[in-house]
């Protein structure tokens, strides 16, 4: 079972209380963007097994969005942080790098 701590209200919630929102830190394109940019945003994404930074909503709690860093192979959670932060905090990056030596945060995703 996946357990995440909501950084907004501090409650520990399992996945039945949460709503997934897909990959975090994506550059979203607007209505005026060229078709190629919109196609790339929708269909051309990395989806490796392993570490992901994802958006989650505490749907049956405070209702706020937050980000979670976790491994899809093991369900290990490295940490959560508010959705307003534009990159994973350094302690979360360090925790991931300690367990997955080849992992590196890609700025400007």
From TrEMBL:
Domain of life from the UniProt record: Bacteria
EC number: 1.5.3.1
Enzyme class: oxidoreductase
Alphabetically ordered keywords of this record: Oxidoreductase
Signal peptide limits: none
The keyword Oxidoreductase is assigned to this record: yes
GO annotation (BP), single: tetrahydrofolate metabolic process
Matches recorded under Pfam families: SoxD
Name of the protein this chain belongs to: Sarcosine oxidase subunit delta
Gene source species: Actibacterium naphthalenivorans
